Amino acid sequence: MNRRDAISTTLAAAAAPLFVPQSAFGANDRIAYGMIAVGGRGRYLNQKFSAQGNQCIAVCDVYKPNIEKALKDTPQAKVFGDYEELLAMKGLDAVVIASPDHHHCPMLLSALKAGKDAYLEKPVSKSLEESKRIIAAVRGSDRIVQVGMQRRSAPAIFKAKKLLDEGALGRISLVRPQWFWNVAKPLNNTPLEGEIDWKRFVGSAYARPLEPMRFRSWRYFFDYAGGNMTDQGTHLMDVVQWFMGVTGPRNAVSQGFVAKMTGAEHPDVFSATFGYDGFLVNWTLDYGNAYQNGWSIAFHGDKGTMILDDNGFRLFAEPWKKGAAPAVEEESPVPVEAHVQNFTDCMRSRKQPNCPVEIAAQAVSGPHLANLAMFRERKVYLAEDGVTVS
Questions:
Q1: Peptide linkage before 267 cis (omega within 30 of 0)
Q2: ω before 319 within 30° of 0 (cis)?
Q3: Closest by alpha carbon to 36, among 147, 121, 139, 137?
Q4: Portion of the chain with pLDDT greater than 90, in percent
Q5: Angle formed by the axes of helices 227-244 and 155-165, nearest 10°
Q6: Rounded-to-integer distance, Cα 225 and Cα 72, Å
Q7: How far apart are CA 139 and CA 163, in angstroms?
Q8: How much is the pLDDT for 376?
Q9: Hey, what domains does the chain have and what are their CATH numbers?
Q10: Whose CA is closest to 229, among 335, 333, 363?
Q11: How do residues 242-281 score in pLDDT, each as one tens digit?
């Protein structure tokens, strides 16, 4: 058994719940859920959940303007400043967690302790160690946890994988995920417009005085997140590893810099190269350029090249010639709605969802490794335990 097979076998065993309880819901029962963190992404998810007939009965946030905006969609919801108090609310079936990354682990662990199913935004963790802790906690419970990586519920992605599995690309030697948006600009550090519970926002992170840009742009600070390396990288590296049948890279090298987001700690331009057995992955992001705007993943094989993006996928046969039309093309967006529906369906069936915590942990392992490589300024290696880095 090689390293890849050993890890896959271990994770497959971990993915099996210790016991499977009977569902508390009928096919038409309305699920009552609470929103923990209702910034832009949280409010977006709240709309998707409520549009499918579920009922938001509670909202929690540290920033008063976020609460006010969320109540426009769910005026009946009870308001909390402390998520532990929300979790103790009677009649609550599940929670949707859309907080900054450093809160993901403690909030999910508290939700499990309170006996709630959870839809957790990606990335699943802020570190490799947290990933291991989260997997153990979920598998020590009987709760359903879906991580918000919606490509796992996208029909076009499944069709593309089937073609790859059938050998349409031949031997794949290189994969190139990328994300280009021209959105970078200096961080806004002007005073916040409303009341904030700064201490609760900081949580277990280093206790610093309030800086508005740290709240507005938390993703770009080491204390709270892994930057776009883990945020966008989780989505794309998941598809790469899923298609290639691997669970994580052996090593990583990376470099990047802050080009336009003055005030940020994490870079807005970077490139990371991951080493796997038999192929390389080059993951590149530039938030100062919109050529080929958005995300894409190119799989390069000796029989063909497949390109996935927000519109679907295209397959080009080898030898490629300039101007050649795709041999296969599928137009289909990535549906968040389908991923939400999968979660609520699994709440009823008690089956594992499309993106359980094991898959989410595998997806972010490479990006976590790349961040370590970037800031240590050297090539780093991931041990077989999926946690130890050398």
A1: no
A2: yes
A3: 121
A4: 90
A5: 50
A6: 29
A7: 33
A8: 97
A9: 3-151+337-356 (3.40.50.720), 153-334+368-381 (3.30.360.10)
A10: 363
A11: 999 999 999 999 999 999 999 999 999 999 999 999 999 9
Query: Longest Cα pair distance anywhere in the chain, in angstroms?
Result: 63
Q: Give me the residue label for tokens 């290696």.
A: 381
Q: For residue 243, which of 310, 318, 343, 167 has the smallest C-alpha distance? A: 167
CB 212 within 8 A of CB 218: no
Report the relative pairing of strands 32-36 and 55-60 from DSSP bridges: parallel
Q: Could you tell me which residues come within 8 angstroms of residue 17 by beta carbon, excluding any fewer than 6 positions away?
A: 139, 142, 352
Structure pTM? 0.92
The values of phi and psi at residue 283, to 5°, are -105, 120
In whole angstroms, what is the distance from residue 247 CA to residue 335 CA? 24
What is the pLDDT, as a whole number, of residue 250?
96
Angle ∠(25,15,133) on CA atoms, nearest 5: 100
Give the three-state DSSP class for 68: helix
Could you read off the pLDDT of 163-212 as tens digits, one per residue? Answer: 999 999 999 999 999 999 999 999 999 999 999 999 999 999 999 999 99
C-beta separation of 251 from 262 below 8 A: no
How far apart are alpha carbons 367 and 50 in whole angstroms?
A: 32
Residue 121 has φ and ψ, to the nearest 5°, of: -65, 155
Q: Are 124 and 360 a contacting pair, CB within 8 Å? A: yes
CA atoms within 13 A on the CB side of 386: 25
> What are 374's two structure tokens?
């970037």
Whole-number Å distance between alpha carbons of 238 and 260: 28
Give the span between the Cα atoms of 69 and 355, in whole angstroms: 29
**Residue 375: partners with Cβ closer than 8 Å, 6 or more residues away:** none
Total number of residues shown for the chain: 390
Res. 16: pLDDT tops 80:
no
3-state secondary structure of 46: helix
Contact at 8 Å (CB) between 103 and 77?
no
CA distance 118 to 101: 15
Residue by residue, DSSP assigns 221-267 as STTT--HHHHHHHHHHHHHHHHHHT-S--SEEEEEEE-SS-TT-SS-
Burial-class residue 29 by CB neighbours within 10 Å (0-12, 13-18, 19+).
middle
